Amino acid sequence: MSVDNDLPVAAELRGDAVHRLLGHLRDETTDGFAAIERFSPADYRDPALAELERDRIFGAVPFIVAHGSEVAEPFDFVSVQLPRNNVIIVRQRDGGLRAFVNACRHRGAQLVEESSGRCRLFSCPYHRWSYDPDGSLRTVTLDGTFGEFDRAEFGLVRLPVEERHGFVWLIDDARAEIDVAAWLGPETDALLAGYRIEDLVSVTPHTFDRPTNWKIMQDGFLDNYHVKYAHPNTAGKVLHTNAVALKDFGRHFWFLAARKSIDRFLGESPGDAPMDKHVIESCFIAPNSMLLKHATHVELLTFRPHGADPGRSTMEMRIMAPTQAETGLDEDAWRARWEKNWHIMISIIHDEDFPILAGSQNAMFNQDTGPMLLGRNELASHLFRREIRRLVHGGSAE
Ligand code: FES
Ligand SMILES: [Fe+2]
């Protein structure tokens, strides 16, 4: 199995967290925040704030936009709508990646319509200028009549992109410089390294357009308090509610939640028994991603706004699984395994979470919603807000 993590630091982190989690389940407690916090609907409907988030978060720090296996071969590309730019990401001949604004430098026609493909030449549909996969302007149509200009200056506009831990990270601002390791910090970087996500393949990337603020969406998937109330017949049957053991890394954080199968260990210490089947291990990767590590695979959920619209977002969901060769399954059995996982996730998220979260967004547009509360038990959401506030209003990570 490729998804394991035997770094000593991670083993200690897991051991401590399992111990604490069992204590919480016995005592009906949870890791918590220092205080209840009030918040206002303006956080989810103010267009001026949404504009700051677009620029000071998505235009300033690295976030995950794909898994490397989605652009595996030279000249493979994906195109993706990000908060500030529509972007093409292209695997280069030398194995590196480049990202470009998906717009012709002549008069701005969109170069690529498809969400993915393979292309040795990007040819503009309007007047047929063409660009090499490295972004340089190759041909100018009827250039004898067009006039002289410096072609080197009119290649596709590049965005900072980096591949690390199997993921493609990007900062959605052409002027930014990217350093994913620095953004992650040593603890989160080591944790992700241990998951060896670069050895996995992305099986089912899927995009959902939601009529819901991206932070409400992200909160919904950091929330262990709602499980048995919003999902009584699905997730609530197999997962515990309102008990997490969390490790805060200052910006990113990591936490364990429990499956009910853990109950057999409530009366005694688990000793060296493997616990990975009895817990869900989650990593919040600021600013907008949630990585769930399961015994057999990894899931990634990402959330981002539509430009500066506070009421709309994109959620992307992908399963990263061991390759067919690694599992020893035949093609059909391998596909069937991940499709089954996918359908379980979709039936919960799409049918149960999405309508509730869209309803929350509607409530934020009420004129008299009144202030609302985030409980001490909702620790992950407090830490998410802490980071968003810091990025939008300034200050450094502790
Ligand atoms: S807009 Fe692309 S060639 Fe004219
Ligand atoms: Fe949920």
TrEMBL record:
Sequence similarity: Belongs to the bacterial ring-hydroxylating dioxygenase alpha subunit family.
Protein name (database record): Phenylpropionate dioxygenase-like ring-hydroxylating dioxygenase large terminal subunit
Pfam families according to UniProt: Rieske, Ring_hydroxyl_A
UniProt-recorded Gene Ontology molecular function terms: 2 iron, 2 sulfur cluster binding; dioxygenase activity; iron ion binding; monooxygenase activity; oxidoreductase activity, acting on paired donors, with incorporation or reduction of molecular oxygen
Domain of life: Bacteria
Stretches assigned to the Rieske domain: 63-170
Keywords in alphabetical order: 2Fe-2S, Dioxygenase, Iron, Iron-sulfur, Metal-binding, NAD, Oxidoreductase
